[in-house]
Amino acid sequence: MKTLLIVYHTLTGGTRQMAEAAAREARAQEGVAVRLLRAVEAGPDDVLAADGYLFAAPENLAAIAGLMKDFFDRCYYPVLERINGRPYAAMICAGSDGSNALRQLDRICTGWRLKSVAPGLIVCTHAQTPERILAPKVIGAEDLERCAELGGGLAAGLGAGVF
Q1: How buried is residue 74: exposed, middle or buried, by Cβ count under 10 Å (0-12/13-18/19+)?
Q2: Which residues are 55's β-sheet partners?
Q3: Alpha-helical regions (H) of the chain
Q4: Which domains does the chain have, with CATH numbers?
Q5: 108-146 pLDDT, tens digit each
Q6: How far is 26 from 156, CA to CA, in rounded Å?
Q7: Angle between helices 14-27 and 141-160 (to 10 degrees)
């Protein structure tokens, strides 16, 4: 049995909805156990125990959110050189763009020598005012379906031994 670790951070609920959609579809795949953890709960032992990863982060000020970065800061050196070649995918919940946060997350994963197995997924909420940025988010069905497909595909590939 392979293990897929999904690590996410959320402040307004958007990224949680994305991670949960991915986890739901991933759990439907055979031969894969799925662990869905908030970034503040996840640590190096969780990373080492997994065979593949899905990282889901909101974009804040053109970068991954601080508590998601904290997860990477706490885990980076304890697992360095111990997870080389494992597959990962990434999802970003952004107000407008998300590309810089995705680049930042991909650079961290490159440092870990992980293998990207799918293009990064960016969901744009179009939140551009302080009120909309801080408001609870509702991710649309079409975007949640894209998240589910990413989670399901990653889990299916793990379960089938493709990566």
Answers
A1: middle
A2: 7, 90
A3: 14-27, 44-49, 66-79, 99-111, 130-134, 141-160
A4: 2-160 (3.40.50.360)
A5: 999 999 999 999 999 999 999 999 999 999 999 999 999
A6: 7
A7: 40
* 113: its two tokens: 């020598």
Residue-wise pLDDT for 7-42, tens only, equals 999 999 999 999 999 999 999 999 999 999 999 999
Residues making up the chain, counted from first to last: 163
What does the alpha-carbon distance between residue 44 and residue 39 come to, in Å, rounded to a whole number? 11
SS3 content of the chain, % helix, strand, coil (to 5): 45, 25, 30
**Which amino acid is residue 47, in one-letter code?**
V
Q: How far apart are the first and last CA of the chain?
A: 14
